[in-house]
Amino acid sequence: MSDDGTYTPDTNTHRYYAxxxxxxxxxxxxxxxxxxxxxxxxxxxxxKTVQKCYNTPLGLWPLDKRxxxxxxxxxxxAMSGFEAYSLALLTRVLGMRLDEVMExxxxxxxxxxxxxxxxxxxxxxxxxxxxxxxxxxTGMSCTRRxx
Length: 147
Fold this sequence. Notes:
This protein is mostly helical. It has one domain. Helices cover 44% and strands 10% of the residues. The protein is built from four helices and two strands; from the N terminus they run ααβααβ. The chain has helices spanning 12-26, 37-40, 65-93, 98-113; strands at residues 52-58, 119-125. A two-stranded antiparallel sheet has the order 1-2. The chain is flat, with a radius of gyration of 19 Å. The termini are far apart.
């Protein structure tokens, strides 16, 4: 997503994420399920959950110093993970050629590194101190072991 219209369907970055999500859906995996966790967590024993949502920038384009630093971290994560995140999905599920995928990834890296697009990635965080298990959950113990 973008606040200023620089992240559009005609960017390679948008195409990359659309293809990865399409491939994941076709393979029965869902990469964007984090926002569904509040409705799923009670089914596995959580009695109280607090969800915090943040938009994190991808790249060094933000003017705010803190956002720029966060964008730098996200940039490093993205640059080192594009291939790992997508090669199998795009080649095996969508049948794209390896050279085609690698060319797309290089274009995405270039777009993000040149700061031509201003992408925000929604992040859902579940702070552990705000997520509670019931006291009587079988098999779960928070007691300290004595040495």
